[in-house]
Amino acid sequence: MPGLEGRVAFITGAARGQGRAHAVRLAREGCDIIAVDICADIPTMTYPNASEADLAETVALVEKEDRRIVARKADVRDYAGLKAAFDEGLAEFGRVDIVIANAGIIRLGDEEDLLAEWQDVIDTNLTGVYHTIRAALPAMREAGRGGSIVITSSTAGIKSSPADQASGLAYMASKRGLVGLAQSLAGHLAKEWIRVNTIHPTGVMSGMTMNEAMAKQFEQAAASGDNMIAGMQNALPIEMLQPEDIANAVAFLVSDEAKFITGIAWPLDAGFTVR
Fold first, then answer.
1. Known catalytic residue: 47?
2. What structural domains does the chain harbor?
């Protein structure tokens, strides 16, 4: 992709799944990487988050592409910790050109603590994205070279699915809220050649989807048709996308070939939103 050689990308949720795929794809294009991941489970969630070993594997894969990486444990809900991790990468590389705010969670299964489940999803998926952007944006603006910010939303950011439990509702609200956040920033930062866009993937093979909790959701949907994922289906005959499918699209979006694209909500959804 034109113009990516020598740039630096800040990526959250980088230990596995889409975040890792972004790191490896951009490293292949010549980018150095600042990578963060919580590397710890969140008690209100029903599936395991990535581990320190997963983050170490991302490091190895980026280095295999002959690029540099600064990888740190950080929780996007904790602005001070996230900013400290970013600042270490900035000190190492001296610049940031790309931000991919990718970290996100959802509880799968029955509601147990409505307030905690709502808050953890909102704090990670919406406030965590705000923290990510605010951590990196001053350095990007001060450099005066422009830049590209990509926010991982979801098909839920365009087309909500029926839900009544706290985590599912918070997921829908947070993913829709990211569109407003991106559009406001896109309009404000356009004069500085900083582009801001959201992507909206359908189901992607990742730790969020490939776990026991999600398997139970699929079984329940097949048996009764009465949960948040019931009725979800892509238009194209593809059950799930690979993380690399999303990373390929994002590599284009942050490249100079997409220099005129800002403020869009791009469905990467195999036709899910047109069903």
1. no
2. 8-263 (3.40.50.720)
